[in-house]
Write a structure and sequence with these properties.
4% of the residues lie in helices and 41% in strands. It is mainly β and 206 residues long. It is globular. 38% of the residues are buried.
């Protein structure tokens, strides 16, 4: 069931290998481009491997976003060959974080609080396939399973939006500033999110 989540957040209180949120997208993740945005707050050390977003099919990690080894990183159908960006670490203050990727050029970037990183070329010609599970809070090493407590999310995640295209800088600015005219995700929309909570995940007001 879709639930209005405006003004809410998911709180992951502590390290766990059982706490996660499974999200059902509005449309299959059959993607040749995407933009994924969220607000994240955590006190975990930026050197620790921390999963921020996981999308896994039965076979592989299809699309993962991490903070790890002092970087923010995107992995597409790989756990070893990613696009890594040396950016300011996440903190106890909420960070608006977006990652963008376009198959036609391979252009990949992170946006942090409305500011764009340099572009890197990654997985040009690749395609993200449908049929997987979207997980917040854990990195599944099998289909919705085999979680590692030392890779789990601890802190707050909110305002998740995802598109099957890359939005403009002006639209990202609207999202960062929470403007009423900000675009709504056509793959994931925080304001009508369909989800299931497992384990110790708390819904709280921001």
């Amino acid at each position: 069931m879709a639930k209005s989540f405006s003004g809410k957040m998911f709180l992951f209180p502590s390290e766990s290998d059982t706490a996660y949120v499974r999200i059902t997208p509005k449309k299959p993740l059959n993607l040749q481009a995407f933009m994924l945005c969220m607000r994240v707050a955590t006190e975990l050390n930026s050197q620790r491997e921390t999963i921020l977003f996981a999308y896994r099919t039965q076979q592989v990690d299809e699309l993962n976003v991490w903070q790890e080894n002092g970087t923010l990183s995107l992995y597409l159908r790989s756990s070893g060959d990613g696009a890594l960006f040396a950016l300011p670490p996440l903190s106890a203050f909420p960070t608006h974080l977006c990652t963008t990727w376009d198959s036609s050029t391979g252009a990949t970037a992170f946006w942090v609080n409305g500011h764009c990183s340099l572009l890197k070329i990654y997985r040009r010609g690749h395609k993200v396939v449908s049929g997987g599970a979207i997980i917040l809070g854990q990195d599944p090493d099998s289909y919705v399973g085999k979680f590692d407590i030392k890779q789990s999310s601890v802190g707050e995640i909110s305002d998740i939006q995802m598109w099957d295209s890359v939005l403009s800088a002006g639209q990202i600015e609207l999202l960062y500033n929470k403007q009423n005219e900000a675009p709504i995700g056509n793959v994931l929309d925080w304001n009508s999110l369909q989800y299931q909570i497992f384990g110790n995940v708390v819904q709280v007001s921001d």
